[in-house]
Each structure stands twice: as structure tokens, then as C-alpha cells.
Amino acid sequence: MANFEYGKAGRPAQWIILDTGAWGRAEVPGNRIWIAPRTPCDKVYSVAVHEWTHHMQGVVYRTWAEVQRELAPYGGPEMVADCGALLLGATWIRYGCPGRYTTDAAAAILRGERP
Q1: For the whole model, what pTM was predicted?
Q2: Contact, 48 vs 33, CB < 8 A?
């Protein structure tokens, strides 16, 4: 994937093509990422790197509750995932990336570190 200098190597994920009700879904924590086959072609990469950022949130934190609590000061897990997606070359985001503070948090998450 483009721009993966922000991604941490050695963090495997199982990619599953299946509609779970959204264009994408990540098991956090866990190693499964789902992409819906109905996701528009021009959005697949953007959705995939958003979900990858969620995957990395699960690598950094032990539970979804911890992810939510620790990333709340940065706009929450969805905004951090959108900022991470932009760092990884996404051309479309849904939730927004409010600025440098959240982008820096996303970069730390993608390195496998706590912000």
C-alpha cells in the first residue's frame, strides 16, 4: 500500500470480503478486517486504510473501551482512523480529520505506539 512508511510492518491482518452492514469493519482488538463487496471501487483503498488504522488501534490498546477512552482527546477512534487513512494515501474519508493534533496521534498509532 502506498505511503506505508506510516504503517508498522509485522502486524498481520486477515482480510475478508464480506458485507457486514458497512463498507468496512475491523475487529478491535483482533486481526480481522472486512471489506464489503458493494464498496464503490474508487473508495476501496480509502476504506481499507481506514480499517487498517482501526486494526492498529487494536494493536496499541487492549480493548475497544480503552481505544475509545484514550483517543477521545484526539476526536475519537473514527477521526483518528480517518487521519491515519489520509497518511496512508486515502482520497476519501467519512468522519473528518480535524488537524495536526489528531494526525500526530494517528501517525503514532500507525507506528504501533501510543500518542
Answers
A1: 0.91
A2: yes
